[in-house]
Every structure is written in C-alpha cells, then in structure tokens.
Write a structure and sequence with these properties.
The chain is an alpha/beta fold and 313 residues long. It contains eleven helices and eleven strands. The longest helix has 27 residues.
C-alpha cells in the first residue's frame, strides 16, 4: 500500500470469522469507516473461474466447487459444493453429505480419523482388518468413538477434500498426512487408467450421499481388489456424479455452462474424466487457465464479487 501509494475505498475479505485477514479487515474497516464486504469462500472460487474465462456478468452457470475447507454461510465447513449463479450472487443447490471432523483442523493431518468418522456416519463397522483401524491404538479408537458419539470437538463438514482423505486411508495409502493434499495426491497416483467400473453416489433432494460408496469400497477391499482399481472406481464415480448433477440442474433451469473450481480440480485424472463426460453431453466447461484452481485464485474472485456488487448498486 505504501509502495504504490494506494488508499482502499472498500475492503473485501473471506467470511471466516477466525481468519487473521478477516479480523484485520473488520478492524480496519471500523477504524477508517470503510465499507466491508465478506464473500463466501466457494462463491469466490466460482467468480475466479468465471473471471479466468472472461465470463460476462449476469449469466448464471453451474459451479462444481470442490476443495478442502471453506467457511459456509451456515457456519459449517463446506467443500463439496454445487452452486448456481455468477459474480453477483449464488445459490447452493447440492452439497456432499455432512460428516464430522473429529478434532477439527487436526483431523486433516490424520486421514485415518476422517475415514472412521465417515464409516461412523454411514453406520458401517470399524473392523480390525481395516487400515485406519490398524493405524490407531485401542485407546485412540475409544477416544475417537466417544468423540463422535457425543459430538465433542467435531465440526460438521461437507468437504470433498476430506472425502479423498477418507478413501485414501481406507485403502491403506495414507494414515498420517505431512503436507496439504498428500492423501488425495497419492490416491490419484495409484489410479488405474484402464478401469471402467465406477462407484455410485446417490443424489438426493439437495445432498450427495456417500454411504453406499463406502460400503462398496469395504466390500471390494475384502474381495482383495487392488488399491489402483478402487481408486479408479472412486474417480470414475465422482465424474459420473458431476454429470448427473449437471443434467439435473439443466432440466431445472436450462443451464449448460459448468465452472470447475477449488483445489480438488488440480487432480488431473478427475478433471479430465469430468470434462470429457460433460462435453460429450453438450455442456460447455469452464476451467482455470491463468489463475490457480486452489486458494491462489480466491482474491481475484473476491474482487469480482465486489465489482458486481458495486455495479448492482
């Protein structure tokens, strides 16, 4: 600010109340009597993708916004979001089924706990043959079960990134993560490109059920099916899910343009499978080119939302 001698006329920031940037923005806006706009994380992702594709304001799109963490308008941790809208506004049409994140952010470093939380939510047993069960001591398992039963420090999440973590743990790929996205990256790396079968995600009124997918993964594990095959079936299932979602919304609204944003779309396997399916069915697909799909694009998205808000006023 000092270098370029600029003075802000408006401050735009994320919705998360605990981010340092949010606290700084709120404090500064108050002290300097500046207007403050808080933009929901996944709306910013969508706006960034639209800007990256020179999208004209006023035309709605289907947004498949998949990432690890983003503060939702309901105070929960979003990340598996299907939005309909554009720069000025969005509506949440579908989201991944809610599950618990035991220990909050610390669970991100422990995919085994995320896997077992998903099994708990799906009412599936923690049997001794499962890799995430073997990764934890009896005491840790007992504490985790108590946490989940009593919802102790277990924020609710709809995160697609955490779903990848859970699957990577279940198939025995990664139980402890040492860097962001590690479990998901390693799950993609073992994906069998020749496998054509897919797990089936159930699309309900407004959410995406995952229980059946976890049930089939457990069945496949006990049949001795390889990690690479299970990974491929998971990726294929997600691509099919994206097509089903878009066809559903197309029937409702006639929309045919789909924007893909959020860190999960750095997964080239999922990106390629999904874009191929969508384009083969006549959808126009917008993906990132110059701006990162991950949080590196959030600031641009926030600015675009702010610009649209200014135009509407």
């Amino acid at each position: 600010q000092n270098l370029f001698r600029i003075k802000p006329l408006k401050i735009v920031v994320d919705l998360h109340p605990e981010y340092l940037s949010t606290k700084y923005a709120v404090d500064r806006a108050c002290k300097e009597q500046l207007p403050l706009l808080q933009v929901q994380h996944h709306h910013a992702h969508l706006a960034a993708c639209l800007a990256d594709n020179h999208w004209v304001s006023g035309q709605d799109v289907i947004g498949l916004i998949f990432d690890g963490t983003g503060y939702g308008t309901d105070g929960k941790i979003w990340g598996g979001e299907v939005l309909v809208g554009e720069y000025s506004s969005v509506k949440r049409r579908f989201h991944l089924a809610e599950t618990m994140l035991p220990g909050g952010d610390s669970a991100i470093r422990n995919p085994s706990k995320i896997a077992l939380s998903n099994l708990y939510s799906a009412d599936l047993p923690w049997t001794e043959d499962l890799p995430p069960v073997q990764a934890l001591s009896e005491q840790e398992l007992a504490i985790l079960k108590t946490q989940l039963e009593n919802r102790l420090n277990c924020p609710i999440t709809t995160s697609m990134g955490r779903l990848f973590d859970a699957v990577a743990s279940l198939v025995g790929i990664r139980q402890i993560a040492t860097y962001e996205g590690q479990a998901a990256i390693e799950l993609e790396n073992v994906c069998d490109p020749q496998e054509e079968n897919a797990y089936k995600f159930t699309l309900n009124t407004d959410n995406i059920e995952t229980a059946e997918v976890f049930d089939h993964i457990l069945l496949n594990l006990r049949m001795g099916i390889s990690k690479s095959t299970i990974s491929a079936r998971f990726h294929n299932g997600l691509a099919n899910l994206c097509l089903d979602i878009c066809k559903t919304i197309q029937k409702e609204s006639g929309l045919q343009t789909v924007a893909l944003s959020g860190g999960v779309w750095q997964n080239i396997t999922l990106l390629t499978k999904t874009t191929t399916l969508l384009r083969n069915q006549g959808f126009s697909v917008l993906q990132h080119h110059q701006v990162p799909a991950n949080d590196g694009g959030i600031a641009l998205g926030q600015l675009m939302v702010a610009a649209a808000a200014k135009e509407s006023n």
